[in-house]
Amino acid sequence: MSFLKRAVLHFANFKIELVDRDRSIQQVVEWAKEGTWCPIVVFGPEGCGKTAWLKQATEVLREQGFDVIYIDPIHRDFIAYTDIKDVMKKLAEAAAEAIDVAGVKLATLAIDSVKELLSRWRRKRIAVLADDVFQTIGLDKAGIYVKSLLNLIEYPPQDYEKMVVIAATSEGVSRREIGRHRWAEIMPIWNMSRRGFEELYEKLPNPKPPVDEVWRLTGGNPYMLERLYKAKWSVNIIINRLIEEKEITPSFINTWRNWLEKAVEDPDNLWSVDTPEELVDKLIAKNLIVYSMYNRC
After folding, report:
1. What average pLDDT does range 68-75 have in this prediction?
2. Which pTM does this prediction carry?
């Protein structure tokens, strides 16, 4: 699939164009044709490429004639494809705020900006894309935020032709909160295909391990590929960092050792009816597993 413009991304200290994701980008094209009748909440493992996909989605939607607002509150980043200068100015001012307030302001402005665009009578196609917003506003507010996005679709200040609303998250806990209501359609996105992963792998300079070994270590996760490259391909360095980041403490290991050993041997063991629910909850909270799957976008 070819696009007029591929999103340019920062990867392992290089600037590259998006690779792979043809299937999920085609889904965006289909949403653009009809609009989304409710917010689409896309979830997937950390580092699987949700941000890259959303940034490419902004380009696709722009090409389809949409005014597009993309926000990434965690990194104080935004993209605004609109000629309404007030909207771009407010987003830029929010992104320049202190770290502890910028994220929340961007999350709020994503909704306010759509309302402002809708108030301009000629704004007929509008899209808003929110990247990992739930982590910024607090998981307890995830449901309310999604309801606010739904209200944009169902109760707009002005009529519109089409609207596309997408939010992405790595937080399994937020998915549970959102899933309790009927305010969104929840869809998963996974790691890269083997073909796409190899294309990304080839962009990294030699020397490097064989692609089969890197694929086995990462499972096609592009962020893990980047981390391995930056760690000079040291698996031990990555493991130790993950232990620290995910707080895999000796107490945690001792408490759940038998189950963890079974999971390492075969992850499907976690889906046994005998698996303690408490362990599953802890692994979801640490973003170490995606427990329930849906049809992929």
Report:
1. 94
2. 0.89
